[in-house]
Structure formats: C-alpha cells, structure tokens
Write a sequence for this structure.
C-alpha cells in the first residue's frame, strides 16, 4: 500500500524528531507511543486488549496520534514517570521510572508500579488483585476483568490509592529542594548575622523582602508578622514548583501546581487561616451586615458564599493558569505530528514554528510562574487583611 | 472532567507534605531569616539615626568653634587695646615723673647754688675783712699819720667789694 510507505517514512521522521524533543522537553513525551502509529492495527489492539484501550504507556503496536489524549495524559497524574518510548519492529516500548504504589484496602498494599506493566498485568497483593485502567487502580478478580459501561464508567471497586504518583514524587522532591534552599539561606543569616548577604542568600533576600514589605505588609496590615511564615511558604512553594514544572527532564516537569488537589490544599490553608483569624468585625460583617434587617436575608447568604468562593477562586486560578501553560506548550508540539502525519515536509516546517512558539511560551511561562505565585500570595494576604482589619468607626461606640 | 476532580492520594500527600514543610520552614528557616531581617532593619535605622545625630553634633561643634574663635579674637583685640593704653599711660607717667624729677632737681640745684653762693659770699666777706685788716695793718704799719685818708681808702675798698658781690648775685 502506498499509504503504508508514507507512514513508515513518517515513523522515521517521528523517531528522529522524538529523540531531539525528548532531549528538550520530556513533559510532552507521552505522545510518543501514539505518534508511532499504524492505523491498520489500531482496531486489532482495541479488540485484543479492551482493558488497555487508550492506555498511553502500553506496550505493543501503537495507535494513531491523538494530541488531546497525549496532552491530558501529561497534565494528569500518573503512577509511573514516563521518560520516552522507543520503537523496534513496529512495537513501541515505553521507558518510565516506576514509582511505589501504596493502596489501603483492609490493610496496606505496597508494590512498584512497574508490576502493572503499563496496565497489561494484574497484580496480586496479599490475596487481592489490582489492575491499572485509564490511570486508575481498580480491584479485580484474578482474571483482571474491568467492567465498564458504554460511557467508560468502571463499576469495579477502587481501593484508597495513596501511591507515590508522579505528582506526589514531584511534591516530595520539590519540598526537599525548598527545604535545602531555605535552610541554606537560614544558615547564611545565622553565620553572617546582620551583615551583608552572600550567594543564594542575597538572591532570595530580594524576593523575601519584596514579598514581606511590598505585598504582605501593606495587604495584611499591622498584624502581618504572624502570617508571614504561611504566606512566604505558600509563595515559594508555588513559585519554585512552577519553575520546576517548566524544566523538561525527570525529575522535573510534573504539572504539580496545575493539579487541582495541590491548589485545593493551598487554598484550604488560606481558608482556614482567614476564618480562624477573623475578628468580630469580620463575622459581624457576614452575619450582621450594616444594612437594613430586611436585606439580611439576601446579603447573609451572599456573604457566606463569598467566604467559600474566595479560596475557591484562588484554587481555580492557579490550577487553570499552570495547566493552560502546559497544554499550550504541548499543543504546539502536537502540531508537528498532526502535520507530519499528513505530509513529511509540513511536519518539518511546522516543527520550526512549533519550537519557536514553544520557546516563546516557555519564556512567558517563566513570567507566569512568578506572577501566579505573586497573585496567590497577594490575594491570600488581602483576605487575611480584611478578616483581621480593625474598624475604627465601630470601636467608637465602646 | 477528571482534571478538575482532586485525587484522594495527592490530596492526602499534599496536606501532609505541605504541613510538614510549613512547620519545618517556620521553625528552621523563617524564624532566623525574619529575625535577622528585622534586626538588620533596626540596625540600619539606628545607624542612620546616629549618623544624623553625629551630623547635628558636628554642626553644633562648628558653630561653637566659631563662637569661640570670635570670642578669642575679641579678647585678643581687647588685650592689645589695653596693652596699648597701658603703654601710653606708662610712657605718659614716666614722662611726667621725669619732668617733675627734673624740675625738682633743678630747683634743689638752684637752691644749693644760692646757698653755696651765700656761703661763698659770707666767706668772701670774711676774707675781704681779713684782707682789709691785713691791708690796714700794712697801711698802719706804713702810714699812721694820715688816718683819715686811710679810712676813706678802706671804705672805698669795701664798697667796691660789695658791688662785685652784687654783680655776682
């Protein structure tokens, strides 16, 4: 078939380009096995391995390149850290770093994610059988059968999954990096006292002093000192993890701050601190607003909604911005393979533009990495500030 | 849809890791860092304040110096003036006393002279008398006959002596 000949040329092109791109941008590597495609065999793959359908990291002959799925696979969490794929004899082999799986299912079950063989194998642990399906671990019988309806909703039971996933690993790694950085900085302060800072200490002092004096102090007000540790930790956690998400190679490049669970916990801390430090004026403003009593029925629900909505928006903003950044960069790379499947020259041509645009976007993401950390901290400071603010007109009555 | 649903595992780990991170950073990083930063702020503020004080003191010292200098100059002028006046008065006094002394000495001298003159005159008178007596003796020895004539000669002699004495006085 002439079409097959064209496709094999594309395969070669893709293999070459992939090697180059993996060296540059590992976050986008999940499309590798899809990119190496043979539309003829896709159907077979689907029928033979219904459970592995759509599994990004599966061994075997790969499917047609699906940019949407590739991008989603990257921005979502995973049980192993995918590095690259290589193809031999038309069969793609994913290469990934296995991560520990920790399940709570009437006792702890621990094993490495490599045992799942990218979703192909059923893992037996303490008499229970588990299978990886669409990035989730389900409890199965010994045959590994996954019961899914037409919409793909799985009816198998799912154990509590506390695995060290890609994002958990990135989280731990990031926490270690942050600790190392700031303990070094603290050591510098202990060593040099009030003297001039040096090295990493002077680099971070600019940021610490900027956040302290220009953002937190004016936003929170006079009680700012006791909120400094939390707000500075939030700022540097977001900032450093954003930056680490932009570095392509393992162990960087995870979409950690673009994960809703991470931003949810950050927002939860802000929510708890705001409401636990809120003074009587803050609560009076919510439950006894300065409006006619008849309007309370309207205003109190709005105020209560606002209390929840503020951290909710914090959570969504960070999640959406960082995820969007990752998606855009991956989208530009997908263009290469979308065009490459149609025409070889178009693939090379679009690669030039894609790389240029990705470079541009990456630089922009550096700005976004700082900006989102800044905005999150600024708004958290403002919320805390408005909750601890003292209303002098109200105190006049005392 | 799955993208916006927080995973249980990651939520759990995030809560744990972030809490531990917050605790560790608060205790071992933010505390020393923020303490030192505020200490440095204070020390800079104090340094600026003391520099201001030093500048004020310098200005004060300078104005003090100027006042002292001015006072010293005035004192010098005063001393010079006084010295000049003293010199003038001393010279005047000396002059006056010298003049007086001179006058007094001249007066004393003239008194002495007139006294000496009187003594001399008296002595002269005595000598003249003796001389006259000897002359008279001689005359008597020579010519006792003409006594009247002789006496008039003696009178003549004595008068001429008196005239001489008056001329000297």
């Amino acid at each position: 078939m002439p079409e097959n000949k064209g496709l094999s040329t594309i395969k070669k092109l893709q293999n070459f380009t992939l090697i180059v791109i993996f060296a540059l941008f590992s976050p986008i590597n999940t499309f590798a096995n899809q990119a190496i495609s043979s539309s003829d065999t896709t159907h077979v793959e689907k029928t033979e391995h219904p459970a592995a359908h759509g599994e990004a990291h599966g061994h075997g002959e790969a499917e047609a390149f699906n940019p949407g799925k590739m991008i989603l696979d990257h921005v979502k969490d995973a049980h192993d850290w995918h590095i690259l794929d290589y193809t031999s004899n038309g069969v793609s082999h994913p290469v990934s770093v296995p991560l520990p799986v920790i399940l709570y299912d009437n006792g702890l079950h621990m094993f490495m994610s490599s045992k799942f063989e990218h979703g192909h194998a059923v893992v037996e642990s303490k008499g229970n059988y588990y299978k990886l399906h669409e990035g989730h671990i389900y409890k199965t019988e010994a045959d590994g059968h996954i019961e899914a309806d037409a919409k793909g909703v799985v009816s198998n039971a799912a154990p509590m999954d506390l695995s060290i996933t890609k994002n958990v690993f990135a989280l731990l790694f990031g926490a270690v990096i942050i600790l190392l950085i700031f303990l070094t900085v603290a050591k510098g302060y202990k060593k040099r006292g009030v003297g001039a800072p040096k090295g990493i200490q002077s680099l971070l002092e600019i940021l610490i002093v900027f956040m302290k004096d220009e953002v937190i102090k004016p936003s929170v007000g006079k009680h700012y000192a006791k909120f400094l540790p939390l707000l500075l930790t939030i700022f540097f956690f977001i900032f450093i993890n954003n930056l680490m998400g932009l570095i392509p190679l393992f162990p960087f490049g995870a979409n950690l701050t673009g994960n809703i669970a991470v931003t949810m916990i950050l927002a939860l801390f802000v929510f708890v601190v705001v409401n636990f430090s809120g003074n009587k004026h803050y609560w009076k403003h919510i439950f006894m607003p300065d409006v006619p009593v008849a309007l309370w029925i309207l205003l109190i629900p709005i105020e209560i909604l606002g209390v929840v909505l503020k951290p909710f928006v914090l959570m969504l903003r960070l999640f959406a911005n960082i995820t969007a950044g990752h998606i855009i960069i991956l989208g530009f790379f997908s263009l290469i393979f979308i065009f490459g499947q149609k025409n070889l020259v178009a693939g090379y041509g679009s690669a030039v533009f894609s790389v240029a645009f990705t470079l541009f976007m990456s630089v922009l993401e550096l700005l976004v990495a700082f900006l989102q950390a800044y905005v999150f901290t600024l708004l958290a400071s403002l919320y805390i500030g408005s909750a601890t603010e003292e209303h002098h007109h109200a105190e006049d009555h005392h | 849809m799955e993208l916006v649903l927080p995973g249980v595992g990651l939520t759990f780990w995030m809560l744990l890791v972030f809490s531990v991170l917050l605790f560790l950073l608060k205790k071992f990083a933010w505390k020393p860092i923020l303490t030192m930063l505020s200490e440095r702020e204070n020390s800079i503020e104090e340094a600026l304040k003391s520099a201001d004080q030093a500048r004020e003191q310098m200005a004060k010292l300078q104005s003090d110096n100027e006042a002292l200098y001015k006072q010293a100059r005035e004192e010098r002028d005063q001393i010079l003036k006084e010295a000049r006046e003293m010199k003038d008065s001393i010279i005047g006094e000396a002059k006056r006393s010298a003049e007086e002394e001179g006058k007094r000495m001249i007066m004393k001298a003239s008194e002495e002279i007139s006294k000496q003159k009187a003594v001399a005159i008296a002595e002269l008178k005595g000598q003249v008398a003796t001389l006259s007596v000897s002359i008279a003796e001689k005359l008597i020895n020579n010519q006792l006959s003409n006594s009247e004539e002789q006496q008039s000669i003696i009178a003549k002699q004595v008068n001429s002596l008196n005239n001489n004495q008056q001329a000297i006085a």
Notes: Chain A touches chain B through 48 residues (CB under 8 Å).
